[in-house]
Structure formats: structure tokens, C-alpha cells
Amino acid sequence: MMDLTIIIVSFKSGKILDRCLSSIDAKYPVIVVENSQDQTLKLNLEKKYTNVKCFMTDENLGYGKANNLGIEKARTKNVLILNPDTELKKNTIEELEKFSSKNPDYAIIAPMIYNQINKGDDNQNTNNSPYEVKEVKGFAVMMNKAVVTKIGLFDENFFLYFEEIDLCRRVIKNKKKIYVVPSALVLHYGGKSHDKTFDFQMELSRNWHYMWSKYYFYKKHFGILLSIFKIFPNFISSVIKFVLFSVLNKKNLKKIYFCRMNGIYNSMIGRKAWYRPQISQ
């Protein structure tokens, strides 16, 4: 059995989280970090799954900071970070274990996205053998805890988006290895990490934070001039669409594009990623 803890950060994930947990072998400990104060969820999860420990946060910490909390609480050599809208295939962990045992100094290993095989995804090869990459998507990644902790965990300035790309850049900069293991498969439903009741509020939050994080990421790694160059077309497009949808009285689209340009503005003037979805705890 692999020395592994599985970490899932959730926020109002409901039945979606239940589907993810049901795909995990009960012999592996699972830490759920719930970014709301849903005590009923905690009680239900820990009653239904004997291998699950659910930690409630005092506030919505975001993806990176909540994952860091889970990583720090894990007492195993390896941690597997999953989004709530993922589902492991039967042998996913065994295939990751097989590869990691032969490469014990790895930093990050990612499984293959099962539902994107043969659909033009660049993150794959044709002979099913593991291969090195410079970055992976953050919805399913296994980390060598000691190696990644030494490099530095997720940058907690990111609330949502770009935090895994930032981490991968730092891993490569420190001359450590990132791999994809095609024989380890995971389903990813994409954008389904929360109850559909909150879709619009979450859409506003995603747009705000994607823009905030994009500017912050480029500023951090490439400097102010390139970050402005990268973000300027997004800002102009958001302003134009905000004005257009205001004239057309398309209230929801108007709010989305206001969030996009507001996220850019706040990032450019150095404000923290403060926006939170307007959902009761």
C-alpha cells in the first residue's frame, strides 16, 4: 500500500464530492478541507466514509491556501490532490505508485485525463509510457511532500487559478521533475465542483479571479511590462463588452464583464484577491 493521503478542497460541492469519494479505495486516508462552515457536511462525510477527515475553515481560503492546509495535516510521504469533480479509475493510484517507486525523487506526478484521450489533448503520448512535462493541470496531481515543501507549497496570494502553474514553474526552476503517467486515469467533469444552485455566483467569482490571477502570475514571473502586455487585450475587451451589455440591458453578462475588468484593476493596483462568491455559509 502506498504511503499516501488524498486531499480534496471543496466549497458547497454536495453530491459531486460524494461521487469523488466513492471512487477512492477506503484504505487510503482522505482529508477534505471544506471552505464553508457546513457542519452538516462534515458530520455526514465522516459518518459515511471511515477514511475521511473533514476540516472546516473559518473563512473561504481559496484553492491554494486550503490545499496547503491539507498538505500540512497529511502525515504521509505522498499527497494526491483532487478536485471534487474528479473520479478515479480502478487502478489509478496503483499506477501512480508503480511509477513513483521507481522515481522516488519526483516532485509532481499527474494522471491522464480519461475523458480527453484521443480528443486532441496535448497532455498525452501514443505509447502509454510516462513522460516529463513542464506543467500539469491542478485538478489531479500527486506530490512528493518533502520535495515540494522544500521548494514551497502553493502561493497563497492566488485565491483561484494559476496557482498550479506557478508551482510547476518553481519546481522546474529548482531542477525537479514533473511527470504524466498515461496508464493512471482520472475522469474530470470540469467546472462541476459545486452545487449547480450556485452556478451564476461561482461564474462571477471565476471570472474575477481568473483575471486577477493572470495579471499577478505574469507580474510575478515576467515583470510588470509583460504582464500589462498580456492583460491589456482582456481589459479592453471586458470594458467594451461591459458597455455593450449595459446598453442591451443584459444584466448577467454585464455583471460577468464587470467582474473581469474589476479583477484586472484590483490586481494591477496591488490589492489582494478579495472577491468572494455571494453565497450564504
Characteristic terms for this protein:
2 domains, Spore Coat Polysaccharide Biosynthesis Protein SpsA, Chain A, 9 helices, 281 residues, alpha/beta, nine-stranded mixed sheet
Describe the 3D structure.
- It is a single chain.
- By secondary structure, the chain is of the alpha/beta class.
- It folds into 2 domains: 4-188, Spore Coat Polysaccharide Biosynthesis Protein SpsA, Chain A (Alpha-Beta Complex), CATH 3.90.550.10; 196-268.
- 44% of the residues lie in helices and 17% in strands.
- It is built from 9 helices and 9 strands.
- Strands 1, 2, 3, 4, 5, 6, 7, 8 and 9 form a 9-stranded mixed β-sheet that branches.
- It is globular.
- Residues 117-125 have low confidence and may be disordered.
Question: What is shown here, in short?
Answer:
The chain is an alpha/beta fold. The chain is built from 9 helices and 9 strands. Helix 2 links the parallel strand 2 (about 30-35) and strand 3 (about 50-55).
Describe the SSE topology.
Elements: E1 4-10, H1 14-22, E2 30-34, H2 39-48, E3 52-56, H3 63-73, E4 78-82, E5 86-88, H4 92-102, E6 108-113, E7 131-132, E8 140-144, H5 145-151, H6 163-173, E9 178-188, H7 199-222, H8 224-247, H9 251-268
Parallel strand pairs: 1-2, 1-4, 2-3, 6-9
Antiparallel strand pairs: 4-8, 5-9, 6-8, 7-9
